[in-house]
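Worked Example 4.2. Consider the chain below.
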Amino acid sequence: MTALKENDRPLPNCAALAIGTVPHQDAAEAVDFMFKYKAECPTWPQLPQADFRESMYIQYMEGMPAAVIDEPGRRSYFDVQRAPEEMADFYERFLAGEIEFCGIGPQFARGFHEFMQRQLPAEARFIKGQVTGPSSFGLTVTDSEGKPILYHTDLFEAIVAALALKGRWQVERFQAKTPGLTPVIFYDEPYLTQVGSALISLPPENVATWLNQCFAGIDGFTGTHVCGGTDWGLLAGTQVDILHFDAADHAQEFFLYEKEIAAFMERGGMLAWGMIPNHEGALGRNAAGLAEEVLRGAEKVAGFGPAGLSAGDVLQRSFVSEACGTGSLTLELAEHCFSLTRDLSDVLRAQIC
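Applying the procedure from the previous section yields the following structure tokens:
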């Protein structure tokens, strides 16, 4: 769980945040874009259209034992033959408390390094980063034969440890740059829409264990994002602080977990409403109508419990955002989505007051 004490926990009050990916090619323009629309919770931008190394999987492979990044072939994998020797070196450094070797270099995250050189907006109260979650990473990245790396148990344990360090590394840099702001680190888990599917073997208890291992080292708020339906009861039972759900197209799947959401809220959990569709459906929406949907949802969550929780309390403990990243959209559509999220935040903020 976060190292922040309960009294130190700032309330988001419907601040706008971003998942991370944007369609820009230029890092400076992407950071300007984030600062314009996400001033209260600026997020370093991921630029998957600019370089294949900025995909949400390759981006985090630096420092991992046996990782191979084939730049000419534009692919990545793990060489399991190299794993025993490189894992020994990895754990030696890990146990010595080193973090820098699991950092993210500028060739893999030019948006992060541009972001960290800038003065943040005066309105900033949070500062957000992100890492690919362990289940999604383990099921997507493979060995040289195409077998998901999650099924190489010993190596995958080291990979989870590396993903945990990626989050800690970001927090340390955030705190050094802006000690007055609250760090927020999301572990994004798009593959968890497949939990319970016959297509994959993914024990729920492992999902929770791996995420909790990542959350444990974060001095700030932790979050997880799934862009679709999943076992939200499972995720609500982890040590996560913020549940980000696709409220645009998959709200009903989230609201099915009444008991688990109530317990999550009772322990101080927060919600991030992915209310803006990250597709052309956003063009037909407006902030006032979206705000009404969030208000109805907040009333529903308040009705789940605990006793005494009001819709206003839920809104105070809520962020708003796009349903998912905007990295695959056009610049024009991404800007529309970000602008609509900012307007939604303003409308809801007026409701709270």
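The first strand starts at residue 15 and ends at 16. The two ends are 30 Å apart (CA to CA). Compare this with Example 4.1 before moving on.
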